[in-house]
């Protein structure tokens, strides 16, 4: 993406924020306006913005040429709706996980003047999405499909979060619940739909396409989202904190990670017992023992093999798609994540 397009994308945020803090449906005063502005600036534009920028990228690849100012604005507005949705998930997720930092700064609810007001802020962030859609897309033939798409993906993501939370219930640490199929379900619903399918689906709708005719695109993107999360699980343990920007805690947090699922698959009875005794413990000695077992089971090579197989399978699925423009969109996504280090 050109620097020019990215700077135009960032300008759209300012426009949308200004509209939201002057929304005629609510009588704002200075205090409420300042609160919303601070809350938005803290939570919405701080990440890598990959999901949002992907809508603009994908639309441009579908069109196959330069975008008009109106097309840049509308595709950026849809991209920001995804970033708003992401902010809503993360603000509430951090409260549920009792996290301390997010994107290199304290979690929103950890700020002294915020606390549990963050729960309502999460609800507000979620409610901003239909306000943006109504303001800019109400007259479009695909408006109802857009609203439906955001509602459905939000439902899928919240349901994925539920499976994740009830699978990793504190006090009920039972590794026998963990399997590849459980991992896959969590990942598919919690991450893949909103991070991979939603940006492309937004671009397809804006381009005038019928999503029901693109079931195969959805399947490929969900597969890609699964591969992305497996990379994430791998980097949490084997990545360098300086590069990935965080210290991995999946072992301590008893996460249903691809690594532990694979370890359980490959381990002998003694090693399984060892995992049951050490996985999910906060003390560094137990974490080190689990990592040592991962090395003994050669999980790095198992992951490399998985990565090569996934890449080949995804490429074949993409090349089987009849539309060259859709192929370009999917290849662009795959190119961004293949062999990533962070």
From TrEMBL:
Its cofactor is Mg(2+). It holds the Pfam family polyprenyl_synt. GO terms for molecular function: (2E,6E)-farnesyl diphosphate synthase activity; dimethylallyltranstransferase activity; metal ion binding. This is Farnesyl diphosphate synthase. InterPro entries: FPS1-like, Isoprenoid_synthase_dom_sf, Polyprenyl_synt, Polyprenyl_synt_CS. GO terms for cellular component: cytoplasm. The gene is FDS1. The lineage of its organism: Eukaryota, Viridiplantae, Streptophyta, Embryophyta, Tracheophyta. It comes from the Eukaryota. One of its GO terms (biological process) is farnesyl diphosphate biosynthetic process. It comes from Achillea asiatica. Keywords: Isoprene biosynthesis, Magnesium, Metal-binding, Transferase. Belongs to the FPP/GGPP synthase family. The keyword Electron transport does not apply.
